[in-house]
Amino acid sequence: MSPFRASIRQIARKMETCEEWIELVRDLREPIAVGPPPADLHLRWAREQDLFAINALEGFVKETDFMAASLRRGDRCLVLEDEDGIQAFTWVTFRDFKLALWYTLALEAGECYLVYIFVHPYFAGRGVGSWLLGKLMIEMRDLGAVRMISGMYSNWHASFAMHTKLGFRIRRTLSQCRLLNIFPTPPKEVPEPVKASRE
Ligand SMILES: CC(C)(COP(=O)(O)OP(=O)(O)OC[C@H]1O[C@@H](n2cnc3c(N)ncnc32)[C@H](O)[C@@H]1OP(=O)(O)O)[C@@H](O)C(=O)NCCC(=O)NCCS
Q: Residue whose CA is closest, atom 22 of ligand 1?
């Protein structure tokens, strides 16, 4: 490569910020172990009238019409509540999911995608997220799904640890870069590291 092209490339790289998105998969035909339910929290499916509470809990999306339409199209949302209201939720879809400007996750028959899981910080670190995700996996398996896909940025350590604890494994890693920290470029698959040879 000419020195000119090399220096242009170097400048472009300096103006680029990149994030890694990890895509995980769990085979729902493998055993799913869930422990005892968290004390004082009651599990149920979300209804349309819950969507404002879910939205307020985490700022999940900007408006609830889109969420209501998604529920009507077959998305499912499990909530955990106590007398103060909804304390955790998890949302799953059976439809292709637009993750970014350039990237729509295409689901095959039998696959579902975990759109989000959230536990109120007051309940965090007490096994609530693992229990809720385990229950969702069982519900999806009982509805006929064979694989659950999930995804997260590589620095979402708690989420990654929770998923791997529940049997998810990495399917692939995508690198999404932005030029000048604004303009997204198409995501690239990050190749797996070459395993060290024993010879
Ligand atoms: C990710 C989240 C749902 C986990 O819920 P939780 O109820 O706190 O999780 P659990 O208590 O069941 O912990 C499950 C595992 O996650 C890991 N974990 C939990 N909190 C962690 C933390 N702060 N740092 C690192 N690992 C953590 C642990 O491995 C833990 O297993 P262990 O207790 O046996 O060691 C919760 O932290 C959350 O809502 N985060 C914000 C939203 C988010 O990131 N959602 C994920 C989108 S994909």
A: 158
Please check whether residue 52 is in contact with residue 63, taking contact to mean a CB–CB distance below 8 angstroms: no
Tell me the average pLDDT of the chain. 88
Domains of the chain are: 25-172 (3.40.630.30)
Q: Are 168 and 32 in contact (CB under 8 A)?
A: no
- Over residues 32-43, the mean pLDDT reads 94
Give, using CA atoms, the residue closest to atom 25 of ligand 1.
Answer: 158
Ligand 1 centroid–CA 117 distance in Å is: 10
**What atom in ligand 1 is closest to the CA of residue 125?**
11
Nearest CA to ligand 1 atom 1: 159
Q: Report which residue type is found at 172.
A: R
For the CA atoms of 77, 80, 85, 89, the dihedral, rounded to the nearest 10 degrees, stands at: -40
Reported pTM:
0.87
The larger pLDDT score, comparing residue 160 to residue 3, is at 160
Quickly list DSSP for 16-74: EEEEEEEEEEEETTS-----SPPTT-EEEE--GGGHHHHHHHHT-SS-SHHHHHHHHTT
Q: Is 146:111 a contact under the CB 8 Å cutoff?
A: yes
Residues with CB under 6 A from ligand 1: 116-119, 124-130, 152, 156-159, 161-162, 165
